Amino acid sequence: MDRRRLSFMAAGAVVAMLVAAGTAVAADQAVTIAGFAFSPKTVTVNVGDTVTWTNNDTVTHTATSAGNFDTGSIGGGASKSVTFQTAGTFAYVCSIHSSMTGTVVVRAASGGSTGRSTTPPTDTVPSYGSSNDDSGLTVTLSILGLSLMAGVVIADRRYRPKG
């Protein structure tokens, strides 16, 4: 095999590994705010995971769990995230529209306590116009990997010695 083919194959293998690693690690959950409701109403994550609320309404909302977490105001089209460091069940509400309620259930890591923790989750940097979902990255890397592999096949057929 020539160096060019080996380079394409190595690059394709690296991209495939990145895609596999990205899909195995991605454990974050997305909550959509639309029609003055959280969807899904209840999300379940593991300790260390992040929940991202994306507001698809035109009015501002919050996701607030008294004494536990508060996203602050989330304007229309914006997103905010909270990373949960402790296990527990966290009921939350939109502090502007009290009829909007939801729950985050955080499972303990194996061997840990499953009871309610006194340490609140931590807010993360808000991301505007993004759901903090890795699916776009996964799709992009998948397409890149497939493109590289297709290039190897085409190059192999085009530059194969005849005889």
Describe this structure in words.
The protein has helices at residues 3-25, 135-159; strands at residues 29-33, 38-39, 42-46, 50-55, 64-65, 69-70, 79-83, 88-93, 101-107, 122-123. The protein has 163 residues and is of the alpha+beta class. The strands form three sheets. Strands 2-1-4-7-10 form a five-stranded mixed beta sheet, with no helix packed on it. α1 packs antiparallel against α2. The two termini are 16 Å apart.
Provide key terms for this protein.
10 strands; 163 residues; 3-stranded mixed β-sheet; elongated; 29% helix; alpha+beta; 5-stranded mixed β-sheet
Helix-strand layout with pairing:
Blueprint: H1 3-25, E1 29-33, E2 38-39, E3 42-46, E4 50-55, E5 64-65, E6 69-70, E7 79-83, E8 88-93, E9 101-107, E10 122-123, H2 135-159
Parallel strand pairs: 1-4, 3-9
Antiparallel strand pairs: 1-2, 4-7, 5-6, 7-10, 8-9
Helix pairs in contact: 1-2
Query: Could you estimate the helical fraction of the residues in percent?
Result: 25-40%
> What is the radius of gyration computed over CA atoms, rounded to a whole number of angstroms?
22 Å
Total of DSSP H or I helical runs spanning 4+ residues? 2
CA-based shape:
elongated
> From N to C, what is the helix and strand string?
HEEEEEEEEEEH
In total, the number of strands is 10
Mean pLDDT across all amino acids: 76
Largest sheet: 5 strands, mixed
Counting helices, strands and paired strands, the structural category is alpha+beta
Terminal-residue CA separation: 16 Å
Main sheet: which strands, in order across?
Answer: 2-1-4-7-10
Spans where pLDDT lies below 50 across 5 or more residues:
18-26, 111-118, 125-134
Q: What is the percentage of strand-forming residues?
A: 25-35%
